[in-house]
Amino acid sequence: MTGGGDAARRPRFGVWAPVYGTWGSRTHPDEAPDASYRRTRDLLVRAEQLGFDATLIAQHLIHPGDPRDDQLETWSTVAAVAEATSRIEIIGAVKPLLIPPLLFAKFAANAAAISAGRVSINLVSGWYLPELVAAGVDGPDHDGRYAHSREWLDAVRGLWDGHVFDGTDNRLVGAGARVRPLPERTPTIYLGGESEPARRLAADRADVFFLNGRPVEGVREIVADLRARRGPGAPDLRFGLSAFVIVRPTNAEADAELTRLQGYSNDSGRRDRTTGADPQTAMFRVHEGEVRVGTNGGTLAGLVGDPERVTARIREFVDAGIDLFMLQFQPLEDELERFAREVLPRFAAIDTGKGRS
What we know:
- By secondary structure, the protein is of the alpha/beta class.
- It has one domain (12-346): TIM Barrel (Alpha-Beta Barrel), CATH 3.20.20.30.
- 36% of the residues lie in helices and 12% in strands.
- It has eleven helices and ten strands.
- It has helices at residues 37-50, 74-84, 101-114, 129-134, 142-160, 196-205, 216-229, 251-262, 282-286, 307-320, 332-342; strands at 12-16, 54-57, 89-94, 119-123, 189-192, 208-211, 238-244, 246-247, 304-305, 324-328.
- An eight-stranded parallel barrel has the order 1-2-3-4-5-6-7-10, surrounded by five helices.
- Helix 7 (216-229) links the parallel strand 6 and strand 7.
């Protein structure tokens, strides 16, 4: 096994917290779905010990694959994980239609204080319509959700910056809205999406753009597009990539494992067939017909193979502009350990910058 690696451009590695219970097949014989907080806490403590840099805690009120299944709540988990860990960046997803900006700004500022500045947010405009109905939200259409997200994010950032609203400067907060104490450092804003409104909002407001898994050629195209949209004088936009990873001693064994996982029923990567998904959601149209494992592009990124092939593909994505890899595995705990053992040592030493570059 080689050590060191891309010292000048060492990527960061994260793991999706198992808020759905699993990120692969729900019928896998070696991983029963478990969306408990205790599992997530233990997983992320271990991921930190192994050298992972970040985690993403997704947000749903109702499980999008099957409403009868368990679904871990996001922001109470963010705060608890912040206390349980010491180094990793904790990226909590939030859907602006589900929580008022003043309330969320207080939640996130408090979680940021608990974590000593390690909490970031992943703004998701929302695609699963039944949870909006269940929450009593009369939500706008696809593009309207992004317009709402822009106004919501402006209110949240204003609150974090110490602005006191007068009731006329943003329709989502009333007179006297403020956050005290203020966060010592404004949380990093992650934003993803395949649609034109998502790209516009990310170029205007995000710190990091999350891409769904795809081959490196598609990544280069999106990175170039988002960089070209960035306004003059704005900080550089950084990029993260979601990917489902399969590492085995040989490429043939990894390819065989991919075929095996594809053969299981009730694959979590088939959320495009979920009843209640907004048909206007571009992610599902982009990936329609693709056979994959995992969510958000899953194995389409091609991180399937022996350690050498997976490492080489990661380096191709780094060259294309990716800074952070947010990874899924199955069985989660075992494959997390395998990746840490076989792939992480091929890159530079752990970044202790707590998610800031």
